């Protein structure tokens, strides 16, 4: 079987590449064929689960504000970004009947809040442009030929094409079909693969799971410990989180975190995970420092704790309470109630048991220690959740070997690459899908124009 342009992978970048290639060919009056091969039974399985099924598909920030959220390949993707900006992407979907809403942080969702609507829209516009989509078409091998490529499928069928676009994604969420095949094929075709690792993933505090890690990868299915059970489900807003690698503070962020069955997640946890995971892979010790009261200096917070303690102690209802119970009431005025058990377990110094005699002891509440721990609650990090639930894959095909203007390979003629197979990744918040869509669009157009030029 033959097709002028073949795209492997019907994810966000692959669907957009197929549409862009077919639309460009039609606009130029060409009848060349475009085929999209997808190993799974349905397109864009990973897109279907983004944004908890709501699909935060882009972020409306300008390039100046968007680019700092790109963790790798910022300068490289600038051309792709401007070729299909976030606003242009929103307008594109609107032109095909998919309306959008903008939420906090410039995040864009379909108005229906259904990821399936984004996927269905992309599939339908591809079909409308004459793209042939084959599902359960698992490519086993890719070989370069004098005039293009030869692809062998798992059912022994062969495809020949003149231009090939690799849109195979990375290694994250393998249940959606991401198995890293694109890295193997790109390497076989001469490309260098920058070492890959999970990013936008849960960081696992020491003692959070029943089994500690030997290689720093802790599977998400590992049961929670007593501490993990106490923390799981807690959500904290407007806090400050700092990442320490060794003894050095490397980054501090303000925002929200979530404790889940995986570990510490949420916007801040995800954003710091890339640097944290890379450091752990390289053998470094990693810890997170949580500031529950970032808007208050320690001196002021200490005075506030002292004043609250006086109020609790003076309350008539406290007369029959033990110091430990009064301490819990105090902490309830300083943090969410469901956080108190873990806070007291991880910060035992906030209470001191003094032996007065052989038979008597007295519990002292250390108010200064409470204030200090509120400002600096340290979580040594034992490991991280791997590709099984990481949002993206960091690393990939070296950008030095790809032309940024059209995403063609500098090493292998007629090859184009887009999306997560490239060494590009970004923060959570719609940034990664925007990169997938805009690089897919540019690669599809680049392949189509190259095909037309070869026919001229």
Q: How large, in whole angstroms, is the Cα Rg?
A: 26 Å
β-strand amount = 25-35%
CATH architecture of the largest domain: 3-Layer(bba) Sandwich
**By helix and strand content, what is the structural category?**
alpha+beta
Helix count equals 14
* Helicity, as a percent range: 25-40%
Number of domains: 3
At the first level of CATH, the class of the largest domain is: Alpha Beta
Spell out the CATH superfamily of the largest domain. FAD/NAD(P)-binding domain
Spans with pLDDT under 50 lasting ≥5 residues?
A: none
What sort of overall outline do the alpha carbons produce when their principal axes are compared? Answer: elongated
First-to-last CA distance:
24 Å
**Average pLDDT, to the nearest integer?**
96
Say what the CATH topology of the largest domain is. Answer: FAD/NAD(P)-binding domain
How many beta-strand elements?
22
Largest sheet: 7 strands, mixed
Q: Can you put this structure into words, describing what you see?
A:
β17 and β18 form a beta hairpin. The protein is elongated. The protein folds into three domains: 2-198 and 392-455, FAD/NAD(P)-binding domain (3-Layer(bba) Sandwich), CATH 3.50.50; 200-291 and 377-384, Beta Barrel (Elongation Factor Tu (Ef-tu), domain 3); 298-375, no CATH class. Helix content is 33%, strand content 26%. Strands 1, 2, 7, 8, 9, 10 and 21 form a seven-stranded mixed β-sheet that branches. By secondary structure, it is an alpha+beta fold. The longest helix is centred in the C-terminal third of the chain and has 25 residues, at 431-455. α10 (298-314) packs across α13 (367-375). It is built from 14 helices and 22 strands. The model has no long low-confidence stretch (mean pLDDT 96).
